[in-house]
Write a structure and sequence with these properties.
- The complex is a heterodimer of chains A (about 200) and B (about 140).
- Helix content of chain A is about 40%, strand content about 20%.
- In chain A, α2 packs across α6.
- Chain A is α/β, with parallel strands linked by helices.
- Chain A starts with a helix and ends with a helix.
- Chain A has 6 helices and 9 strands, in the order αβββααβαβαββββα.
- Chain B is mainly beta and about 140 residues long.
- Chain B has 1 helix and 10 strands, in the order αββββββββββ.
- Chain B starts with a helix and ends with a strand.
- Classes of the chains: A alpha/beta (about 200), B mainly beta (about 140).
- The interface between A and B is medium-sized, with 35 and 30 residues.
Chain lengths: ~200, ~140
């Protein structure tokens, strides 16, 4: 009897521990997904950049007073980049006219070999005219991405012609002072986009 | 009278044929309208395998593209990249989702510009040797 009881208690304790572990993992996942954009301690340093666009140099310091949505990708990217840029365009257009004037997107190609500046302009503007297509040379891109805690690399495609580029999945949100405020992960909902953008607008 | 029986037979026969195809169902197939100048596209869809056997999707054909491939996304260290897969398992009685950030069908070498409202014919090649026809609607995902 004692033995059965202690076994039962043991089993209950294990079940309790498992439940606690599971719920804390779930909590952590939920919290990290919905963390306010300003959880600055975990964010990389970010910072300013100067890149090239079809309309001339793109200097992030020229956008002080505006929130920048910074995204790294490439135009041959079939799925993630178009869906992220679609979401970005939709999010910008969902804001009030005053807010829209204070937000701009910068789409940085990590595939400058295939993406000409003219092509980048055409591509980015398709999603919203407030999204600028820009790029730089490999060294500039590498150092910029590393400041944002990211990297990119070419991956040969086994069956297809050419190559794919592995790139960060998130959009970086810079406030009106050019400070990195947070990230918007791929697949975020429109309310999550709006919250992140408005949070950065309020911070700046 | 004979005519009536014959027409009933035809109706039943057609229904049986249709049922054979209902075993595998493609829903909500769409192609996001590619940006101008884009020579590739992507198909998203839901495939429901109503049979009690697992099937595999081995490939897709479409006359709008010079080549179609099955792809998935690999997420690693905050990076994403796409990767070709040889086949996609369609478990019995379940939906298999092809959606942004996951499985998708790549359309390489688009032969014409795809505009919102266009229809893209697809032929799915299955591991049991059968094929299934479906249509994907081109959709402007900016809206």
């Amino acid at each position: 009897m004692d033995r059965t009881l202690s076994r039962r208690i043991g089993a209950m304790l294990i079940a309790l521990a498992l439940a606690l572990a599971t719920s804390s993992v779930v909590m952590w996942m939920v919290l990290s997904r919905h963390a306010p954009s300003g959880s600055a301690s975990a964010l990389p340093e970010g910072g300013d950049f100067v890149l090239q666009s079809a309309a001339g140099p793109v200097d992030s310091r020229a956008f002080r007073g505006q929130v920048i949505l910074l995204y790294f990708g490439y135009t041959f990217c079939p799925d993630i980049c178009p869906s992220t840029l679609s979401d970005m365009g939709k999010a910008i257009r969902s804001l009030s006219a005053e807010e829209q004037a204070l937000v701009r997107g910068v789409f940085v190609s990590v595939d400058p070999e295939r993406d000409s500046l003219a092509r980048l302009h055409e591509y980015a503007a398709y999603f919203d005219p407030r999204i600028t297509g820009a790029s730089g040379d490999e060294q500039e891109l590498m150092s910029l991405l590393s400041r944002y805690g990211a990297t990119y690399r070419r991956v040969p495609l086994e069956d297809s012609e050419g190559y794919a580029v592995e790139h960060p999945g998130s959009v970086y949100v810079l406030d009106a002072r050019g400070q990195l405020r947070g990230r918007i992960t791929h697949g975020s909902t429109q309310p999550e986009w709006q919250r992140a953008i408005r949070g950065a607008l309020a911070d700046g | 009278m004979i005519m009536r029986w014959m027409s009933l037979a035809i109706v039943l026969f057609t229904a049986a044929l249709a049922l054979a195809h209902v075993q595998l169902e493609v829903r909500d197939a769409y192609v996001p309208q590619p940006p101008p100048g884009q020579t590739m596209g992507v198909v998203f869809m839901t495939v429901r395998n109503r049979t009690s056997n697992a099937l595999s999707l081995l490939g897709v054909r479409s006359d709008v593209a010079s080549k179609c491939e099955l792809h998935t996304h690999v997420h690693a260290d905050g990076r994403m990249r796409m990767e070709a897969v040889r086949s996609v398992l369609l478990p019995a009685g379940r939906d298999t989702e092809f959606r942004p950030g996951g499985l998708h069908v790549m359309l390489f070498g688009l032969k014409r510009a795809l505009r919102s409202g266009d229809q893209v014919p697809l032929t799915l090649e299955l591991s049991d040797g059968t094929t299934l026809r479906a249509v994907a609607n081109v959709r402007d995902t900016r809206r």
